[in-house]
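User: Study the chain.
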Amino acid sequence: MADLQASVIQNVSPPTSKHSVAIALGSNLGDRFANIETALRLLEQPNQLLAGMDADVVVSVVDTSFMYETAPMYVTDQPRFANCACLIETNIEPRMLLRLLKRIETTVGRVPNFQNGPRAVDVDILLYDDEIIDTRAEGQRETLDNLVDELVVPHPRITEREFVLRPLADMIPEFVHPVHKKSIRALLDVVISQPNTDFPMLKVTPFAHYPISETRQLPGIDRVPSMEKYWSTHCSNDIQRPTKVRLMATLNATPDSFSDGSVNNTLSAALTYSATSVRAGADIIDIGGYSTRPGAAFISSEEECQRVVPVIQAIRSHEDQGVSSTLISIDTFRWEVAEAAVLAGANCINDVYSFTGPEYPLTQASAKHLLKMREVARKLAVPVILMHSRGDAGSNKDYSQYKGGVQEGVRAELGEKVEAIIKGKGGVRRWFVIVDPGVGFSKTVEANCVLLREASSLTANTPRNPLAGYPQLIGSSRKSFLGAILERPDADGTNRGRKTQPKERGWATAAAVACAVQQGASVVRVHDVQDMRDVVAVASAIWSYC
């Protein structure tokens, strides 16, 4: 497999900056996630906010942490915070950068307040290269009560704040703190080893609201949608467990999908399925207009849009508010379709090729495809589901080049794409990424069983795992590998097995869904929401205490 990340980086303008800076962002007033997204967009437009800056001033966000919901610290009688961090590359010196950050806070809506009180946004410099900086006079450095308009780097309270260390550990776990001489990972281990009875930190995935409602337009940046809905996952060094396993209902607006082609490809049928699924407990509707089954007919981007956009618009206009406000995912690998669908009302992009398109092995065209998909996703600020695949779903099933077999192959190949998507100038925010191992795509029956059985290890918080910490979606509903298992005779020969059609694999799907819940999946993609809701409810009750 070609080094995709290197290919992508070659297509991005070379950096003109020289300093690497870690910045923390927090918000607990108003639309918290939108406030942070606004601050990040303003950060890359320094000349819009500070007059008199040199024309060659550069600020580029090159990496982001996961997003967290945290309990307030020090002053506890206030709303919960959204907290994250980013890495920037810049040629701005520290004092000027501090001025820029304060200007961003004011522009987003922060007003003078008491220390550690509520704020629309708080933006702080945590690290500036590996420098030690203190702008206070020598005789004023004994306490931390005199930091107004002053800069102390590294931030003096890093080591006591889990909500700062966790985001840093997402990006630079091995960075050695220049004062304490310990890695960020080691400092985090000390903090989380101490008993904490407060509200635990939760990793969150925010969802943008579309069609976009009236929002304030700020100079030099794209309009930021509201982001009040979100999903959450417990922070743990063991198996990650969501606060709730989410059900994704599968709506194929196609005439030729493997399971339900031509069933829901009329507007009335699609609306009926959507409403029934939401009332049965679906958390999100995944709408696809292009079948990915082997041998499916090619259709143009225009025809794909004609299949999915009217369905999205109809759901958004539904008389039942529960249906009209439900989350919608667009299942597509084309940027034109993704953009049109989101602007029509979708909230998420689900891409079976993880932004590289259907070509396999990957080529320079794959890298260009990734850059365009990344640009659209970044601009729209929506979650993206990135699935592992190798071109045609029925081909390319050999993982013998990987010592760890299919599990290591998926981790390496999907991890390479994820790294290229989130890192570098123009990258998607890490907190918007959900990964999918691609059960049923380019894997043997045995390999699919391995992926299900060991799904938690794919995103485990282990060193050098590029997929560590990401929420995981698993889609096994009605797939052909289940049919192949059902067709096998029993070991003792008493049961010869049976051939099944996709709709006859409900019980088999239930077994796979229960396994996905046991392995800590955040989302399961299903066709039969009513039945699978019961499976998820019982499996969650059984495994949530492990």
Notes: The chain has a mean pLDDT of 91. The first strand starts at residue 19 and ends at 27.
